[in-house]
Design a protein that fits this description.
This protein has 7 helices and 2 strands. It is mainly alpha-helical and 179 residues long. The chain has a two-stranded antiparallel sheet with strand order 1-2. The longest helix has 16 residues. It is globular.
C-alpha cells in the first residue's frame, strides 16, 4: 500500500489550522479539524496528528509543559521555520492555498454567515488576513479575553496595540477587547 505523503502545500495549510485552534482543543472531532481535513482530502485524524507534530516545535507549549507529539517530519520543521514569526507570509500563502484547494477566490474564504432571515449589504475594504489574525489571537488566549476572561467569542475583537495602518509589523503586542 503506497503512503500518501503530505505535500508542502498541505503542510502549510495544516500550520494555518494549528494557529487557529487552541492546542488543548485540537482533536479529530474538533469541527475546524474536520472542516479543513475535508478541504485537504485527508482524515481528521491525520490532520490532528499533523497539528500535534507542530506542537512539538512550539516553545510556548514547552513553557507550559506541553510537548506535542514526539515524532514528526523535516517538512513540518521547514514550514515552522519559514512561517513562525512571519505571520503575514503564512496568512497570504496558506489562505491562497486554501482557496486553491476549494476552487475559490481568496476573498470568498471564511465569509461570516448571518442568521437565517437577515440580509446585510456590505461594501468594505478588508485585509485578507484579518480572519486568520482573529482566529490566531482567540486560539492564543483559549477563546477568552486575556484581560477580562470573557468567553463569548462573538463579543471579542482582536486588536493590535498600535493600529495596523500605522505599524504593520505583526510582532507588536496583541490584545483582545470586548464590544
Amino acid at each position: 500500500m503506497a503512503q500518501n505523503l503530505w505535500t508542502k502545500e498541505e503542510t502549510i495549510i495544516a500550520f494555518n489550522v494549528y494557529c487557529k485552534i487552541p492546542f488543548k482543543s485540537s482533536s479529530k472531532t474538533n469541527p475546524l479539524v474536520i472542516k479543513y481535513a475535508k478541504i485537504l482530502g485527508r482524515s481528521s485524524s491525520a490532520l490532528n496528528m499533523k497539528i500535534g507534530n507542530f506542537g512539538r516545535l512550539d516553545p510556548d507549549l514547552k513553557k507550559q509543559g506541553i510537548t506535542g507529539l514526539v515524532n514528526g517530519s523535516k517538512l513540518e520543521e521547514e514550514v515552522w521555520n519559514e512561517f513562525n514569526g512571519n505571520w503575514d507570509k503564512l496568512v497570504f500563502q496558506s489562505e491562497k492555498l486554501l482557496a486553491k484547494f476549494q476552487n475559490k477566490k481568496v476573498e470568498e474564504i471564511e465569509m461570516n454567515s448571518f442568521p437565517e432571515g437577515r440580509e446585510n449589504f456590505v461594501s468594505t475594504k478588508v485585509r485578507v488576513n484579518q480572519n486568520f489574525f482573529r482566529n490566531m489571537i482567540l486560539s492564543s488566549y483559549n477563546m477568552k479575553c486575556c484581560i477580562t476572561g470573557l468567553c463569548f467569542t462573538e463579543l471579542l475583537v482582536a486588536s493590535h496595540i498600535k493600529p495596523w495602518s500605522v505599524d504593520k509589523k505583526i510582532e507588536q503586542i496583541l490584545i483582545m477587547d470586548y464590544v
